[in-house]
Specification:
This protein is an alpha/beta fold and 236 residues long. It folds into two domains: 119 residues, Response regulator (Rossmann fold, 3-Layer(aba) Sandwich), CATH 3.40.50.2300; 96 residues, Orthogonal Bundle (Arc Repressor Mutant, subunit A), CATH 1.10.10.10. 40% of the residues lie in helices and 21% in strands. The chain is built from eight helices and twelve strands. Strands 2-1-3-4-5 form a five-stranded parallel β-sheet, with helices on both faces. Helix 3 links the parallel strand 3 and strand 4. Helix 2 packs parallel to helix 3. The longest helix is centred in the middle third of the chain and has 16 residues. The chain is elongated and about 55 Å long. The two termini are 24 Å apart. 31% of the residues are buried. The N terminus is likely disordered. Bound molecules: calcium ion. The site of calcium ion (CA) has 5 residues, from loops.
């Protein structure tokens, strides 16, 4: 977790689904962010003005006013990074939002790992202006290094290209180095608590990770199976 002395970026979450707001608030606070919330566009604009957040998470499907309008107003008065939360079928909204000045978007349902990675990437970009010290978090285990903020993985210093879910899975395991991480925890963290797909997906991604990271994928020394329960990352 983040040290108490460290700057905790403030995130404004504009979202009207109460359950989602609470689960996101909980997860973001655990990741070292402070969170203020708004459930309408009007409230979102007011809070952006009064709280001066480091970043805005903006749902596009809001009651009363469209998230696109909120995006336009926000951008007219501030350079704050904006990440849109969009519906799967809202392709036109994504394009419109980006044209209105949003910086990035995630499609619902998204995993918190993915969202946090996007947030950190945006904050890094805006912190580069020099207001805040850049904090880089790097996880290490044996031959493998994972740079959380840069979203980069290397084996013996050589960059390895991972797909987003593979990266999230490795991060989830490396954060608990030496400890069993159950299948349920991994699926929740990487695919989201709303994932009801085939759990074999997890094994497929573990296999891909091993193929990319292990010297002998058939006899893994970093990502080891805990039979019947889950997986564990070890230094090897
Ligand atoms: Ca909504």
């Amino acid at each position: 977790m983040v040290a108490a002395t460290e700057h905790r970026p403030l995130i404004l979450l504009v979202e009207d689904e109460a359950d989602l707001v609470e689960s996101m608030r909980f997860a973001l606070e655990a990741e070292g962010f402070d969170v203020v919330t708004a459930s309408t566009g009007r409230e979102g604009l007011d809070k952006a003005r009064t709280h001066r957040p480091s970043l805005v998470l903006l749902d596009l499907m809001l009651p009363e006013s469209s998230g696109l309008d909120v995006c336009r107003y926000l951008r007219a008065e501030s350079d704050v990074p904006i990440i849109m939360l969009t519906a799967r079928d809202g392709e036109a909204d994504k394009v419109a939002g980006l044209e209105l000045g949003a910086d990035d978007y995630v499609t619902k349902p998204f995993s918190m790992r993915e969202l946090v990675a996007r947030i950190r990437a945006q904050l890094r970009r805006s912190f580069r202006s020099g207001t805040f010290a850049e904090v880089s978090e790097v996880l290490r285990g044996g031959r493998i290094t994972l740079d959380v903020d840069a979203h980069e993985v290397a084996v013996d210093g050589n960059p390895v290209s991972l797909r987003p879910k593979e990266f999230d899975l490795l991060e989830s395991l490396m954060r608990r180095k030496g400890k069993l991480v159950t299948r349920e925890t991994l699926i929740d963290e990487v695919w989201g608590p709303g994932y009801f797909g085939d759990t074999k997906t997890l094994d497929v991604h573990i296999k891909r990770l091993r193929d990319k990271l292990e010297p002998d994928p058939a006899n893994p020394t970093h990502i080891v199976t805990v039979r019947g329960l889950g997986y564990k990352f070890v230094d090897g």
